[in-house]
Design goal:
Deoxyribonuclease I, Chain A; five-stranded mixed β-sheet; 5 helices
Length: about 290
């Protein structure tokens, strides 16, 4: 991989917003433990969803007939966001892709924040990867009921518009839980470069969940590179997520390191976007201490 090695600096204050009451947590730059901190249950429910900015797609024809919705506001977008918020309520941590960060096409609604507020998530963060004036603000998003200690965003190699969110749950960097949310490029050459970047970033971490729309299937060169250069493994098989109306490909993934036990692995039958959401339960090691 060319270019400088990416670094995760555990001293940088977190960049995460909160929907919790002010008394429930310290300020964003306050590194003291929350007085209400407690051990989170050993199992967390996680999900990953490319929501296509709240656009419903039920056939390839919709890409053409409904292409205007990627630029102009639609009255159907808000009801779809409400459906998505209801779907995500059972989960503790959610990674979102293709979220709008408050442009005119989404009626100036910051969709990650909206889903956090209507889904009951105390914490949220997002990363704007591509700006088309005020018409469209393409983003990745994080929803969490668990307080992240740090959240960083990274621009991925290749053409502008792709990024990664990396969150750390836990005060001790050695035993913390790391969550990486990705949306990779459409071209294989760019994806391989992006996988190399991410592998350098998280390859030495012990407890990692990586999720997102990776735009490649199991046993692809990209996934093989990712599992070979990190401790991640793919617990999913024979799960199809795209297109949502007739799933034929597994483009969306949730990978975990061996220290994390993945159970109840499933695709959710929720045809709102052109992708189906993925979900699993993750059992955490006893030495991971995360606060709620």
């Amino acid at each position: 991989m060319s270019g400088p090695r990416p670094m995760f600096d555990p001293t940088v204050p977190m960049s995460v917003a909160s929907n919790a009451p002010p008394a429930a947590k310290p300020g964003p730059s306050d590194k003291r433990a929350s007085p209400q901190a407690s051990l989170h249950p050993r199992v967390v429910q996680v999900a990953s969803f490319n929501i296509q900015t709240g656009i419903s797609t039920s056939s390839y024809r919709d890409y053409i007939t409904g292409s205007w919705r990627h630029i102009w506001p639609s009255n159907k977008r808000l009801p779809n966001l409400n459906r998505i918020a209801h779907l995500l309520r059972p989960f503790d941590i959610v990674g979102l892709q293709e979220v709008d960060a408050g442009s005119s096409r989404s009626h100036n609604i910051v969709q990650t924040q909206y889903l956090a507020e209507h889904g009951g998530f105390a914490f949220w963060s997002h990363q704007v990867n591509r700006k088309l004036g005020n018409i469209a603000l393409h983003s990745n998003g994080l929803l969490s009921r668990i307080r992240p200690d740090l959240v960083h965003d990274y621009k991925l190699p290749g053409l502008p518009g792709r990024g990664a969110l990396l969150a750390r749950f836990g005060k001790n960097p050695e035993t913390a839980l790391y969550l990486c949310i990705l949306h990779l490029a459409l071209g294989r050459r760019a994806r391989l470069r992006q996988i190399g970047f991410i592998s350098d970033l998280i390859g030495n971490f012990q407890n990692v969940i990586l999720m997102g729309d990776l735009n490649c299937e199991p046993d692809s060169p990209e996934l093989n590179l990712l599992t070979a250069s990190t401790q991640l493994c793919d617990p999913m098989s024979d799960i199809k997520t795209f297109p949502s109306w007739r799933p034929q490909k597994m483009l969306d993934h949730i990978l975990v390191t061996p220290s994390l036990i993945a159970t109840n692995i499933r695709v959710l039958n929720f045809a709102c976007s052109d992708h189906l959401p993925l979900a699993m339960d993750v059992q955490l090691p006893e030495d991971i201490l995360v606060s709620i």
